[in-house]
């Protein structure tokens, strides 16, 4: 009894068949010997006779011949159609393309998009602001208006421009660990105090005025979900003290806001600049006065 070889490769079985066929062994005898060595499921009698005929016809290769396989459905026309659909909607998904091409599988469409067309899904880049053509035209018009009025009125026009600015004022009200240090004996008990938290660590201060007088200063806390927008808050009253244009603005003992000087080519960000410079009939109330309380209260900017 011979030892059986389990799970032989096809090329080894065919090599044994070619060897036995070269010794003029009959196909039936080749099939019987193959069953003795490799088991009953090695190959059928009909398949043995088919290989014997191919060896007799001059075949020497015992490996499978390469086959063309299933024809590919991807062609240049399909790639062009997919590219056209992508150009119509850049925020497409592979599932949306499957609805447009139901005869094409999802895997094939993904291969066309990534390998043939070399598309990659990228996010848009977020920037704080974008300078558009409409902004350029608007600022050019404002600068031209400033220059025209300056040529007509002279330096007196510069004193009528109301400009403004905004800044974040931070409130440092908590006592730090360094500030809580005290001189004590080494055997004295350690002082304990609960951790403090500040709900509003900073607020937005809006200030506006002319070159000679300060109009008003308003402070809005940092917005949260429960707080209204700055445009919904009441308009604060102007300060009762007049400030010279060389003086700094000190709203309280814990914050300092410096006043920004104007230029007649100023690019306005507040509505007060737009209104005061666009109207040729500028009211006399905005002209320089010694006391800031006589100035009109400008509206807060719309946000």
Structural key phrases:
303 residues; alpha+beta; Arc Repressor Mutant, subunit A; two-stranded antiparallel ribbon; 5 strands; 10% strand; Mos1 transposase HTH domain-containing protein; RNaseH_sf; Mos1_HTH
Offer a quick outline of the entry:
32% of the residues lie in helices and 10% in strands. With 303 residues, it is an alpha+beta fold.
General description of the model:
Mean pLDDT is 72; it is low at 225-233 and 241-295. The chain has helices at 10-22, 27-38, 45-56, 76-88, 94-100, 106-116, 133-153, 271-278, and strands at 163-170, 202-209, 214-221, 249-252, 255-257. The longest helix is centred in the middle third of the chain and has 21 residues, at 133-153. Helix 1 crosses helix 2 (27-38). The chain is an alpha+beta fold. The chain is 32% helix and 10% strand.
Low-pLDDT residue intervals, each spanning 5 or more residues: 225-233, 241-295
Q: Judging by the overall fold, what is the CATH architecture of the domain at 10-57?
A: Orthogonal Bundle
Q: How many beta-strand elements?
A: 5
CATH fold call of the domain at 10-57: Arc Repressor Mutant, subunit A
| Secondary-structure element order, N to C | HHHHHHHEEEEEH
Which geometry do the CA atoms define? elongated
Class derived from helix and strand content? alpha+beta
Q: Mean pLDDT score, rounded?
A: 72
The helical percent reads 25-40%
Distance between the termini: 97 Å
């Amino acid at each position: 009894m011979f030892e059986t070889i389990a799970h032989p490769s096809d090329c080894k079985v065919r090599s044994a068949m070619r060897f036995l066929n070269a010794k003029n062994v009959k196909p039936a005898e080749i099939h019987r010997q193959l069953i003795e060595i490799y088991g009953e499921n090695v190959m059928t009698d009909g398949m043995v006779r088919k290989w014997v005929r191919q060896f007799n016809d001059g075949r020497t290769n015992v490996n499978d011949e390469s086959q063309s396989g299933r024809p590919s459905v991807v062609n240049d026309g399909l790639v062009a159609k997919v590219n056209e659909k992508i150009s119509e909607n850049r925020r497409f998904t592979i599932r949306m393309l499957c609805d447009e091409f139901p005869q094409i599988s999802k895997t094939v469409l993904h291969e066309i998009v990534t390998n043939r067309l070399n598309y990659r899904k990228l996010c848009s880049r977020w920037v704080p602001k974008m300078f558009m053509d409409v902004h350029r035209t608007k600022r050019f018009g404002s600068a031209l208006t400033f220059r025209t009025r300056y040529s007509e009125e002279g330096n007196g026009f510069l004193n009528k421009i109301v400009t403004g600015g905004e800044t974040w004022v931070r409130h440092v009200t908590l006592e730090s660990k360094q500030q809580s240090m005290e001189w004590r004996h080494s055997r004295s008990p350690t002082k304990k105090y609960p951790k403090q938290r500040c709900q509003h660590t900073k607020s937005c201060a809006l200030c506006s005025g002319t070159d000679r007088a300060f109009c008003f200063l308003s402070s809005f806390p940092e917005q949260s979900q429960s707080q209204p927008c700055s445009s919904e808050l009441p308009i604060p009253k102007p300060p009762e003290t007049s400030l010279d244009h060389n003086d700094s603005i000190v709203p309280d003992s814990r914050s300092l806001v410096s006043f920004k000087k104007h230029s007649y080519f100023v690019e306005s960000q507040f509505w007060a600049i737009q209104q005061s410079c666009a109207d040729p009939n500028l009211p006399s109330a905005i002209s320089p006065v010694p006391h800031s309380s006589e100035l009109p209260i400008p509206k807060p900017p719309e946000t």
